[in-house]
Amino acid sequence: MVNIPEYYAGKNVLISGATGFMGKVLLEKLLRSCPEVRSVYVLVRSKAGQSPKARISEIVNSKLFEKLQQDQPDFAEKIIAVNSDLTQPELNLSKADQSILAENIDIVFHCAATVRFSEPLKDAVQLNVLATQMMLALAHRMKHLEVFIHISTAYANCNRELIEEVVYSPSVDYRKLIDTLDWMDDDLVSTLTPKLIGEHPNTYTFTKSLAEYMVQQEAGDLNVGIVRPSIVGASWKEPFPGWIDNFNGPSGIFIAAGKGILRTMRASNNAVADLVPVDVVINTTLAAGWYSGSQVLNRPKSIPVYNCTTGGINPFRWGEVEYCINMSFKTNPLEQAFRRPNVNLRSNPFTNQYWTTVSHTLPALLYDGYLTLMGRKPRMMKTITRLHKAMMVLEYFTSHSWVWNTDNMAMLLAQMSPEDKKIFNFDVRQLHWAEYMENYCMGTKKYVLNEELSGLPAARKHLNKLRNIRYTFNTILVVFIWRIFIARSQMARNIWYFVVSLCFKFLSYFRASSTMR
């Protein structure tokens, strides 16, 4: 087989979801590591008055594409923005654009999806199932299509403890569900959602499971592959360590912890935090496209599925995540932190609820009261409420562990040449978690919050100030409580006078020693 860059040379590639986190990294990596690719078509909808072309222009002028800009100044000429909307019939593609795509596209990467766990079922089905169905229908019309890669999630079948690299049959027929949702009103759908999704924790994992099965059923003679990433985090190496541009998934938790807002969360210390760097996912995706595309004449009978996970190969547990977050943000603090970073994991829901009230709700109420007295708008309680909702959604994933089979991932790596393994590295055995987490936390500071590293000395000074305030407050509180106790107990008063006299004697001895010297 030819190597990966040679395979993509001269090809026309279509990417859906190119404005999303993974889509942007895929676009950058494809153009940078496969410079001979002919063109990359991207499906983009107009948003907030911006045309698809303007949105892509904004993306390619961002920090993510700086390295590519230096290596290939004219790379943007290969990107062709196509007006499209996943919520509309036929993806809202014009007849002319449908014809152009049908005549020219060689490879499809379908990355578009909603990743909101709390998405209403109708919307989740529209974006994750129907949009994928329409992408497949479009792919069937492509005259030169070699491979169709569908990006799913490792949690599509999280109702199972052992997840093999196969497509599982869902508990609900996706065709009947689509027909049923078409006539149901939103209130009825909301009422029936818990029964419909069954053992799935949310509509996201449920609809991604349906989408996988739908791809299997409707692929026909298409050459299809499925990539299942777990919890996608900041970049490991490419285009530079720690790149992240959103608050989704773990990033929002890390920032809340760094700001001192998040102090306790429901998680099991020993549960595996199956984080996977975004560049690992993208390298796997491009390698999967190359392998499937190169096997046109010798295709496997079943759709190849790649569980792009780390837990079974290089496990990293939530207890270790807690330690790394606390240490990273104490060393390199975020600006204007509310409190010093100190996250604690609680596996017991009742204990977690108690500490949530003590460490989140009460301080937020006190802080908002202070802001009100100062004539400023209270905001902390609203932030805490949003954070609690986000944490409730994530609890299922932070308190459970799964076993994923990764034989296809190992096979794919074995098929690659030594040079391809360097350029498209997804061997997570080489991943050093402590270093990765430090880069991840720094990435949230630099790329999400846009904080300059020159502000670190001031941020550290602010953190020390918060520490001193905390120690002072705790000391006053202890003395206050102790004084109340003394007023009610003769024994407590005797102990108190003994300790005070001992302190005075020690100070007197210290002064006398200093005078003699």
UniProtKB/TrEMBL annotation:
<protein>
    <recommendedName>
        <fullName>Fatty acyl-CoA reductase</fullName>
        <ecNumber>1.2.1.84</ecNumber>
    </recommendedName>
</protein>
<dbReference type="GO" id="GO:0035336">
    <property type="term" value="P:long-chain fatty-acyl-CoA metabolic process"/>
</dbReference>
<feature type="domain" description="Fatty acyl-CoA reductase C-terminal">
    <location>
        <begin position="360"/>
        <end position="451"/>
    </location>
</feature>
<dbReference type="Pfam" id="PF03015">
    <property type="entry name" value="Sterile"/>
</dbReference>
<dbReference type="InterPro" id="IPR026055">
    <property type="entry name" value="FAR"/>
</dbReference>
<feature type="transmembrane region" description="Helical">
    <location>
        <begin position="495"/>
        <end position="512"/>
    </location>
</feature>
<comment type="function">
    <text>Catalyzes the reduction of saturated and unsaturated C16 or C18 fatty acyl-CoA to fatty alcohols. It plays an essential role in the production of ether lipids/plasmalogens which synthesis requires fatty alcohols. In parallel, it is also required for wax monoesters production since fatty alcohols also constitute a substrate for their synthesis.</text>
</comment>
<dbReference type="GO" id="GO:0102965">
    <property type="term" value="F:alcohol-forming long-chain fatty acyl-CoA reductase activity"/>
</dbReference>
<dbReference type="InterPro" id="IPR013120">
    <property type="entry name" value="FAR_NAD-bd"/>
</dbReference>
<dbReference type="InterPro" id="IPR033640">
    <property type="entry name" value="FAR_C"/>
</dbReference>
<keyword id="KW-0521">NADP</keyword>
<dbReference type="Pfam" id="PF07993">
    <property type="entry name" value="NAD_binding_4"/>
</dbReference>
<keyword id="KW-0812">Transmembrane</keyword>
<keyword id="KW-1133">Transmembrane helix</keyword>
<feature type="transmembrane region" description="Helical">
    <location>
        <begin position="471"/>
        <end position="489"/>
    </location>
</feature>
<dbReference type="GO" id="GO:0080019">
    <property type="term" value="F:alcohol-forming very long-chain fatty acyl-CoA reductase activity"/>
</dbReference>
<dbReference type="GO" id="GO:0005778">
    <property type="term" value="C:peroxisomal membrane"/>
</dbReference>
<comment type="function">
    <text>Catalyzes the reduction of fatty acyl-CoA to fatty alcohols.</text>
</comment>
<feature type="domain" description="Thioester reductase (TE)">
    <location>
        <begin position="15"/>
        <end position="284"/>
    </location>
</feature>
<keyword id="KW-0444">Lipid biosynthesis</keyword>
<dbReference type="InterPro" id="IPR036291">
    <property type="entry name" value="NAD(P)-bd_dom_sf"/>
</dbReference>
<keyword id="KW-0443">Lipid metabolism</keyword>
<keyword id="KW-0576">Peroxisome</keyword>
<keyword id="KW-0472">Membrane</keyword>
<comment type="similarity">
    <text>Belongs to the fatty acyl-CoA reductase family.</text>
</comment>
<keyword id="KW-0560">Oxidoreductase</keyword>
<dbReference type="GO" id="GO:0008610">
    <property type="term" value="P:lipid biosynthetic process"/>
</dbReference>
